[in-house]
Amino acid sequence: MGCHKEKESIQNSVPGKKIMQEFTHEEIEQIWNSINHYVPDRQKVDCAVDFIKTLVDIGVPTKAIKSAGEYDEKLEAAIESVFDEGNEEDDEDQ
Questions:
Q1: How many separate domains does the chain show?
Q2: What is the structure's pLDDT at 21?
Q3: Cα atoms in the Cβ-side hemisphere of radius 13 Å centred on 39
Q4: pLDDT grade, residue 4 (50/70/90)?
Q5: Which of 20, 39, 79, 92 could form a disulfide with 69 if both were Cys (CB 3.0 to 4.6 A apart)?
Q6: For 25-36, what is the mean pLDDT?
Q7: Average pLDDT value for residue range 29-41
């Protein structure tokens, strides 16, 4: 059984492999609040955008991500920015 778990964790760490992660909006908020305190104010929006893009890349559901921005204006701005960029790219493809 131990080998199976090791193999599974190795497969989950393969670069470029999209992995669906189950996070609640509360967990996203907790992570952001932990990061947020170490980032200078002038860099918080850029950091939040990178954080949101990372969540998208690992397959966190859009609904959970969008719900997480309700209580932090910088995180909300980042969410709007990331998902607006995605809509613009979709429009260009059509």
A1: 1
A2: 72
A3: 18
A4: very low
A5: 79
A6: 93
A7: 93
Orientation angle between helical segments 44-57 and 73-93, nearest 10 degrees: 50
Asked if the structure places residue 81 within a domain, the reply is yes
Q: Is 47 domain-assigned?
A: yes
Q: Name the residue range of residue 80's domain.
A: 22-93
In a domain, 87, yes or no: yes
Q: Considering the domain boundaries, does residue 14 fall inside one?
A: no
If you write DSSP's letter for every residue of 14-67 in order, what string do you get?
-TT--------HHHHHHHHHHHHTTS-GGGHHHHHHHHHHHHHHTT--HHHHHH
- The whole-model pTM stands at 0.70
Rounded to whole angstroms, what are the CA distances from 35 to 1, 43, 69, 87, 91? 35, 12, 14, 27, 33
Identify the helix (H) or strand (E) that includes residue 5: helix 2-12
- Are 82 and 56 spatial neighbours (Cβ–Cβ below 8 Å)? yes
> Quick check: 11 pLDDT over 60?
no
Cα 23 from chain centroid? 10
